[in-house]
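Thread: NAP complex, take 2
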Amino acid sequence: MSEIHKLVIIGSGPAGWTAAIYAARAQLQPKVYIGIPKQDPGPVLPGGQLMLTTEVENYPGFPNGITGPEMMAHFQQQAERFGTQVICDDIVRCEFSKDPAKVPHVLHTASGEAVRAHAVIIATGAVANWIGLHNEMRLARSGGGVSACAVCDGALPAFRNQPLAVVGGGDTAMEEATYLTKFASVVYIIHRRDSLRASKIMQQRFLSRPNAKVLWNKVVVDVLGEKHIEGVTLEDTVTKERSKLDVRGLFIAIGHTPATKFLQGTGLEFNEKGYVDLKRRDSTTNLPGVFAAGDVADEHYRQAITAAGMGCQAALDAERWLGAQGVH
Ligand code: NAP
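Output below.
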């Protein structure tokens, strides 16, 4: 039989690493499963969404900003300093126990290991959404100029001095579009309504660029091109009129879905949008010894700082719960 861990943390974004820092300092010897990098069809990386972000300017303590990957490297170093064990594997299935202090939870890894733990913190975040068009997915998978991450792919030579488009009207769309204005001849925001959801500062940053354009009330209904994107077919959401827009790159920035597939059928409860349902104003779920933190359980704020705060709460909740069960 394998060792029983006090605490396993699944996920390595701000929530997972903050939980690890607190848990390691509380001598819970946490084990963090950081995940295996994959293309699904866009990049899913250990470190989460911040690995796909350029400058983080709103995380207190970094007056000059910091890049997302740099910030995640700092978080990991800090967690490791206090003895966190870091495992590069995915948890693909969970068997949660009804009485985990006596019969531990069992977590199955992609590499075929069964990991036993009294307490688990789920901090798997969320992954980028796609429109769901056949040609969008085909060209995303084949590297044909369709991507859900401008920061990862935007600087490729194929996009230099070309017309590019970003779908979405939120902060992510503004951030990606602003980044692309550095390379592109023109960057179109394609948005389904007549006003943007993004914060004013992010809107202004994009709109102040000379090669920025917004196409209002438009949705992409097809992506054109065999090996590489040559354009998109747009539909006006008001008039239903269709038109063609020539672009050589299409970046999808239409929000995220919580990464909970591996938790289906475990008895864990989710809300109507698929986020882990937290029972109280803490990280407690409906299952004993199972806690959740960060974007996987937060459809509202979804910020690095709030995810980190939730990670802290989850570690404190897990520590208290373990103590109350007599697991020290
Ligand atoms: P979001 O705020 O949910 O925005 C998603 C956008 O995509 C919305 O404009 C939405 O349109 C549009 N959309 C959704 N489904 C669509 C579909 N099927 N077809 C076309 N358009 C669709 O997501 P987000 O921009 O990823 O931001 C998520 C969170 O992260 C937010 O809290 C944001 O503030 C934060 N964030 C912050 C920063 C920063 O401060 N540096 C950067 C990035 C993200 P509607 O507006 O019509 O709903």
